[in-house]
């Protein structure tokens, strides 16, 4: 039986990621003033991502005066791109270390763009396990992503059902904005009756809150 030393392999790739020894490419991620250069190994990125397999091909790649491959990703923040590189090199993604939930949402969109399926699966699983928390942090943001990006399709049903179960709570937060969004997106048609019933039940609460302000 062959011995498997995956921990040693992971440690070696982690050292390579940290030291940048022998790097042959530079990726510039994000926009000013948070733009950042990442020194990377094109072979590793090509092996781990279908997107970079094409990006570092002869048809796409450009070299600077020092001979390094240079690639720009202004649409992915430097923070998110750093997380992606850590995953590609080390197989690690720290969900719980992120205080800003929007970073996790951006990570899923970026992983989808870069064709990193296992990372997509991991982020989707984390979001599924913490859907109420994410809805509470930014309900409208989640709704916007659900109707815009296909990578959220697997999560759409569960997110919407969680919203419906907690509809009264959410309507008390920002009823006007929520109603405006729901009315203009057909994804919510099947839940409209439940939302209307919740509105009727929460309207007295909302009116009392408005009266108390005055």
UniProtKB/TrEMBL annotation:
On the tree of life, the source organism's domain of life is Eukaryota
Query: What Pfam families has UniProt attached to this entry?
Result: BTB
Q: Which PANTHER family match?
A: BTB DOMAIN-CONTAINING PROTEIN-RELATED, HL07962P-RELATED
Signal peptide feature range:
none
Domain BTB: start-end pairs? 23-97
Q: What is this protein called?
A: BTB/POZ protein
Xref: SUPFAM superfamilies: POZ domain
């Amino acid at each position: 039986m062959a011995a498997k030393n995956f921990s040693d392999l992971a440690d070696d790739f982690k050292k390579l990621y940290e030291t940048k020894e022998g790097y042959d490419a530079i990726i510039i991620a994000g926009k000013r003033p948070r733009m950042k250069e990442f020194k990377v190994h094109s072979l590793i990125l090509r092996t781990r991502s279908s997107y970079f397999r094409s990006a570092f091909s002869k048809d796409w790649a450009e070299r600077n005066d020092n001979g390094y491959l240079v690639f720009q990703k202004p649409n992915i923040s430097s923070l998110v791109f750093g997380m992606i590189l850590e995953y590609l090199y080390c197989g690690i993604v720290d969900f719980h270390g992120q205080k800003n939930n929007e970073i996790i949402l951006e990570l899923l969109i970026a992983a989808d763009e870069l064709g990193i399926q296992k990372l997509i699966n991991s982020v989707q699983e984390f979001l599924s396990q913490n859907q109420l928390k994410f809805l509470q942090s930014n309900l409208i943001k989640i709704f916007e992503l659900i109707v815009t990006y296909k990578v959220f399709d697997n999560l759409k049903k569960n997110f919407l059902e969680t919203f419906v179960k907690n509809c009264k709570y959410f309507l008390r937060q920002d009823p006007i904005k929520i109603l405006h969004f729901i009315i203009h997106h057909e994804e919510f048609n099947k839940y409209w009756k439940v939302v209307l019933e919740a509105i009727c039940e929460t309207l007295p609460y909302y009116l009392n809150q408005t009266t108390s302000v005055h």
